[in-house]
């Protein structure tokens, strides 16, 4: 049982070091996910070019989703931008 089986001409420590180096390189190139930007009601209304009561109406109707943080309502920027086509369609349907 003292026999060694060699499957590769590379030593075990060299193999481990190469794997560690490859993983570190992969982790360095992988970008950390960007945190979602949250907008206040005023910022969201300004982004959509609507008034605060209109933004409240859009939230109530489900065009944009508001997130309650304490006594504030915040909106995810990506969701607001994604809702723009639906809001434009709703405006055109009104008149």
Structural class: mainly alpha
Average the pLDDT over all residues and give the rounded result. Answer: 86
State the helicity in percent bands.
55-70%
Number of DSSP helical runs? 4
Distance between the termini: 87 Å
Strand order of the largest sheet: 1-3-2
Largest sheet: 3 strands, antiparallel
Number of strands: 3
Overall 3D geometry? Answer: rod-shaped
CATH topology tier name of the domain at 38-94: Multidrug-efflux Transporter Regulator, Chain: A, Domain 2
Rg, please? 27 Å
**Class of the domain at 38-94, according to the CATH hierarchy?**
Mainly Alpha
> Segments where pLDDT lies below 50 for 5+ residues?
none
The CATH architecture of the domain at 38-94 comes to Orthogonal Bundle
Portion of residues in beta strands equals 5-15%
Keywords:
mainly alpha; 95 residues; Multidrug-efflux Transporter Regulator, Chain: A, Domain 2; three-stranded antiparallel sheet; 57% helix; 3 strands
């Amino acid at each position: 049982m003292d026999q060694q089986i060699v499957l590769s001409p590379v030593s075990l420590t060299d193999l481990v070091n190469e794997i560690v180096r490859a993983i570190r390189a992969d982790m360095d190139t992988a970008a950390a996910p960007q945190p979602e930007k949250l907008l206040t009601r005023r910022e969201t209304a300004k982004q959509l070019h609507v008034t605060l009561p209109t933004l409240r109406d859009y939230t109530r109707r489900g065009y944009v989703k508001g997130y309650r943080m304490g006594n504030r309502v915040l909106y995810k920027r990506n969701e607001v931008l994604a809702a723009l086509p639906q809001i434009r369609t709703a405006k055109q349907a009104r008149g």
